[in-house]
From TrEMBL:
<dbReference type="GO" id="GO:0004768">
    <property type="term" value="F:stearoyl-CoA 9-desaturase activity"/>
</dbReference>
<keyword id="KW-0472">Membrane</keyword>
<keyword id="KW-0813">Transport</keyword>
<keyword id="KW-0444">Lipid biosynthesis</keyword>
<dbReference type="InterPro" id="IPR009160">
    <property type="entry name" value="Acyl-CoA_deSatase_haem/ster-bd"/>
</dbReference>
<feature type="domain" description="Cytochrome b5 heme-binding">
    <location>
        <begin position="353"/>
        <end position="421"/>
    </location>
</feature>
<keyword id="KW-0349">Heme</keyword>
<dbReference type="InterPro" id="IPR015876">
    <property type="entry name" value="Acyl-CoA_DS"/>
</dbReference>
<keyword id="KW-0408">Iron</keyword>
<protein>
    <recommendedName>
        <fullName>Acyl-CoA desaturase</fullName>
        <ecNumber>1.14.19.1</ecNumber>
    </recommendedName>
</protein>
<keyword id="KW-0276">Fatty acid metabolism</keyword>
<keyword id="KW-0275">Fatty acid biosynthesis</keyword>
<keyword id="KW-0812">Transmembrane</keyword>
<dbReference type="GO" id="GO:0005506">
    <property type="term" value="F:iron ion binding"/>
</dbReference>
<keyword id="KW-0443">Lipid metabolism</keyword>
<comment type="similarity">
    <text>Belongs to the fatty acid desaturase type 1 family.</text>
</comment>
<dbReference type="Pfam" id="PF00173">
    <property type="entry name" value="Cyt-b5"/>
</dbReference>
Amino acid sequence: MATTTKTKTKVEDDHTPIDIDIPDNYVAYTLKTQKALPPVSWANIHKEINWLSFTILTVTPLMGIVGAIFTKLRWETFAFAVFYYFVTGLGITAGYHRLWAHRCYNASKPLEYALAMAGAGAVEGSIKWWSRGHRAHHRYTDTELDPYNAHRGFFYSHIGWMLVKPRRKPGVADVSDLSKNEIVRWQHRNYLTLIILMGFVVPTVVPWLLWGDARGGYVYAGLLRLCFVHHSTFCVNSLAHWLGEAPFDDKHTPKDHLITALVTVGEGYHNFHHQFPMDYRNAIKWYQYDPTKWFIWTMKQLGLARQLKVFPDNEIHKGQLTMQLKKLRETQEMLAWPSDSNDLPVISWDSFQEQSQKRPLVLISGFIHDLSNFIEEHPGGPHLLIKMIGKDATTAFFGGVYDHSNAAHNLLAMKRVGVLAGGMPHGLDDKAIPPSQRLKIARYNELSSPYNSSAGQSDGEGMFY
Ligand SMILES: [Zn+2]
Ligand SMILES: [Zn+2]
């Protein structure tokens, strides 16, 4: 690790990607060799607190709440606070996140400056620091090298990771492209001035100049709006890895949920986002709530953004299909299926005749079925079954007397007790394989096996005797 740290200092200056010489076993090696700080407990917490973030994240809401108790809220100030929440929120979502951390599109200089300023108003660190952590989050999702590892619990991934000193250094993630970006560098250099200006001065001065409410502006559009923006962004790391569905992939924790989208200016389709991080969209359906996408799209119409990246639809649908098949497979595994010819005893014609004297056995499609307990329930009446005991009823079952429903065929297959020796010619798969088994979900390693009940029956080989 010592060499990696040294390399980092060296290369960050000359804009070479930091991970260019990364070892092949980087993750395992780092987790094994890099020392992590001890777990935080009541005994050591006083030494482990990250005082700067701790103060920002606790004093701001306290001052906001106390301020709100003693400050009348005017509707103009309220409307402006909500508006400014979206301005600074978009600075993070459309700027920090989708533009800089993920390069989902290219922005014109004026738009980049505007987003860099708006993002500073959210007081979440500089673009460079934020994007570096976020790229590590995507690269090492759900591991100890992910700075806000969701496996450490909701609280830790939401805010805990900033309240204490990082337990380990986030995994290596290259930001050399950002080091070369003049606007990112400008923001980094002037960060303190920009957070004071955009975080507090602008939200105080605008309501003061327009309707004479400087104090309300400071409390509501400054302090409280900042708390909302903070927790809105933090929800992307906590709520979006905890609540909802995984329609694209379930390998990791990210999830899709409308509630998360509503509280994060549209970053709630996080399962999609982790699968297709360079897509400028988080929500792919027009009716899903993704104002960040709408904003970027509008900027494109205004000529301020271009090259909006979109992942190929075909690949997106593959992910969705895989997840749908997984669910269907679970349902398939919950159901009882008929025995196939490999599991059933092979019975001679004579033995079939003999056993039919003792119980109602009927031959259909080469399978011998035991119809005990069913004769009285047969919708067509018991007499039609009784006269077929000990006989081949294939023709009668498949349309000769009544063309049975698929459900009837499925039920019939559940009553199989044997296979007639030499009793079935080839080429009658549709009669031997019940409708419920003609289309099934098979895992790739089951496809060639003659012993599975899903796809191995397709050619009929090994099935009939
Ligand atoms: Zn995430
Ligand atoms: Zn992301």
